[in-house]
Design a protein that fits this description.
The structure is a single chain. The protein is of the alpha/beta class. Helices cover about 30% and strands about 20% of the residues. A hairpin with a 7-residue loop joins strand 13 and strand 14. The structure holds iron/sulfur cluster (2 copies). One iron/sulfur cluster (SF4) binds next to helix 11.
Length: about 450
């Protein structure tokens, strides 16, 4: 591919270790984003982000309109919540998300005239964004408007964006990396957004860069997305934004690996990109920033992929947050007979679920439906000490040791082996010839560590 011909960035375009699983993006990569209308009801958990839950601002039977704030993020690390529909609050309930968390939620019955979601999608995808408008806003105003719009990282981590773009005198940020890698197999929502809405991504990136007073902004894209690279390049022409085309490798889109690949810096173990002067945000988040700041439209909808061999018609969809997974699966023609596993997100880092009432949240990047053939793994056997898991781990951990510490419920040993540096990418499990569920064991080990810390 064309990637090393003219590198505009100091890194080598890749990182040590990692794996090359089949990308399987062919299911949905060619499908243009379709707009889904308001469903009969939406269910909106009060915690869809990292941090403190937001406080509900509405009561049962209260009428709300589309875009109205219904939950307020009062803590600094929190995010507000806005209704994606016009309707009536039915009740405050509790939902269980695919990661097993039980959360309070606001249920809204759709009623009355709705904002046309086609209009919203048109606003995001229009090409007539005036980049010069970015300087109409001071850095402080940009941060406040991002906060008021309830924007969180749409790549999956869901960290409140206003926190990320708030300048910190102790940790100065000089570079913003806008993450369009989408290294998770199957998922294509970021790819489609970059192809269909590059101007809003560029506008949002300029706004976030201004908020941070960043000297450099790179939009980072893996070299398996040539159309996205082309679209962002054209949209970013005559701006300060540079394009960093990086090698396709899993997990290229994780923050420490992308920092290494693009700016050749090592984020310390247990540290953050901010420790080396870097802020990172997803391309979808940047489009949301542009909508929130320039068009004063809070985050109520997002693009997701519905993909995999077990879905009848794989698609990319622009959906209201809070719609049920069941409804979007039905919209895509339902499940095939040989579908055996439904995952919120992609197969490497997502969580399997079975309750079709599970709502789409701000951090849901897709639904992957796998067939028996796609999930085929053999029976677990004993470790053969091949070391493949060690070679695969992008964090340079020793997954066998972490798994052993979890098996023996030994949290102090797990901590000594830096279990919390594992970000559960699944590379070790993927390569293990003994089919040992290393990530699951590591998750158990982390829970043991957390429990032991509480006791102290
Ligand atoms: S899941 Fe954790 S231990 Fe396994 S490869 Fe990824 S970072 Fe390393
Ligand atoms: S990859 Fe599996 S079999 Fe090989 S050393 Fe790691 S845990 Fe053992």
């Amino acid at each position: 591919m064309f990637f090393f011909r003219s590198r505009e960035f100091p890194g080598k375009g890749s990182f040590p270790h990692g794996i090359h699983p089949p990308s399987n993006k062919f299911y949905s990569a060619g499908a243009e984003v379709e707009v889904v209308s308001a469903p009969k009801k939406v269910v909106l958990p009060l915690l869809q982000h990292i941090g403190s839950p937001c406080e509900p601002l509405v009561k049962p039977k209260q009428v709300v309109s589309c875009g109205e704030m219904i939950g307020e993020g009062q803590a600094f690390i929190s995010a507000s919540l806005h209704s994606p529909v016009t309707g009536k609050v039915k009740k405050l309930s509790v939902v269980t998300l695919p990661n097993g968390r039980h959360l309070p939620a606001i249920e809204i019955q759709t009623d009355g005239e709705q904002i046309d979601p086609d209009y919203l999608w048109k606003e995001i995808t229009e090409t007539d964004w005036h980049f010069s408008a970015v300087t109409d806003y001071s850095p402080d105003e940009i941060v406040k408007m991002i906060h008021a719009s309830g924007i969180v990282g749409l790549g999956g981590a869901a960290f409140p964006t206003h926190v990320k773009v708030t300048p910190n005198a102790k940790r100065l940020i000089d570079t913003l990396l806008v993450n369009g890698c989408e290294c998770e197999p199957y998922l294509t929502c970021d790819d489609r957004l970059m192809r269909e809405a590059p101007h809003s991504i560029v506008t949002g990136s300029l706004l976030a860069g201004r908020a941070l007073s960043a000297k450099e902004i790179f939009v980072c894209i893996e070299d398996n997305k040539p159309e996205a690279i082309d679209a962002i390049k054209k949209a970013a022409k005559n701006t300060v934004i540079k394009i960093a085309v990086v090698k396709t490798k899993y997990p290229q889109g994780s923050e420490k690996q992308l920092v290494k690949a693009v700016v050749d810096l090592d984020v310390p173990l247990g540290g953050l990109p901010a420790d080396v002067g870097i802020a990172m945000s997803n391309v979808g988040t940047m489009a949301a920033v542009a909508m929130g700041v320039i068009k004063k439209m809070p985050l109520t909808h997002r693009v997701i992929s519905v993909t995999g061999g077990g879905i009848v018609n794989p698609k990319n969809l622009f959906v209201p947050i809070g719609i049920s997974m069941g409804e979007i699966i039905d919209y895509c023609g339902g499940l095939k007979k040989d579908a055996v596993r439904i995952i919120a997100g992609g197969p490497m880092m997502g969580f399997a679920f079975s309750d079709m009432n599970t709502p789409v949240t701000k951090g849901t990047s897709g639904v992957t439906v796998l067939t028996h053939e796609e999930t085929l793994t053999g029976e677990e056997t004993s470790c053969v000490r091949c070391g493949r898991c060690v070679d695969a781990c992008p964090m340079k951990l020793v997954p066998t040791r972490l798994a052993m510490a979890a098996r023996y419920n030994n949290p102090s040993l797990a901590r000594r082996y830096h279990i919390n540096a594992c970000f559960e990418c699944g590379s070790c499990t993927y390569v293990c010839p003994a089919n040992i569920k290393l990530v699951q064991l590591i998750r158990t080990g982390k829970a043991q560590v957390a429990a032991s810390m509480k006791k102290q």
